[in-house]
Amino acid sequence: MKADGLRAFLRAAAERMAEKKDWLIELDSRAGDSDLGLTMSDGFAAAAKAAGDSDLEDIGKLAYTAGKAMASAVPSTMGTLMASGLMQAGKVLKGKEELDAQEEAAFFEAYFDGVQQRGKAKVGEKTFLDGLWPAAESLKAAAEKGRLTAEDAENAAAAAEQAFENTKGMKAVHGRMAIRGEASRELYDPGAAVAMLLMRAYADTKKA
Predict the structure, then answer these.
(1) Which of 145, 193, 196, 202 has its CA 20 to 30 A from that of 132?
(2) pLDDT averaged per 10 residues in sequence order, the chain, 208 residues
């Protein structure tokens, strides 16, 4: 992946979030404040625009720039978390103008780390992390063969989709959903839905 590959990924993410804006709003309305669809569509649109307007070839700096733009555009809890993921990936990959397979997989690991460090959640606590972790692990394993293919990206997206489905039955620990206690097990996690859409956007990019 080069800088234009990251730009394409962010455009695809923005398109996915816009396409599913109403669905995210509906999911969030069951336990949150119903703004997730707007936050994610506006946030990723800002990130994609910032990356598209930049002539940076350093992938790390480009990711960080996109993250800063998202943080400014949507300074909500989830907006800040998603921006933190991009910015952490930017820090890890600074100085890279082309990513090999392992570095491309490391982008998503760093994204996970950035969100975790900012939000202080853990896997198993019914958050975005539960959606992203299996996908990141799938890519990490696939990268060991030396390249990441469209099939690998599709497998990662499928892992994220299954992980989203698995959040129904989990007890929420964070956010407004946690107030529901045991009743939160009946709901899907909106954050994991965002992770699913993010990985679907990555698969879209690899197919192109």
Answers:
(1) 145
(2) 97 98 92 85 98 98 98 94 98 97 98 96 95 98 94 98 95 85 89 97 94
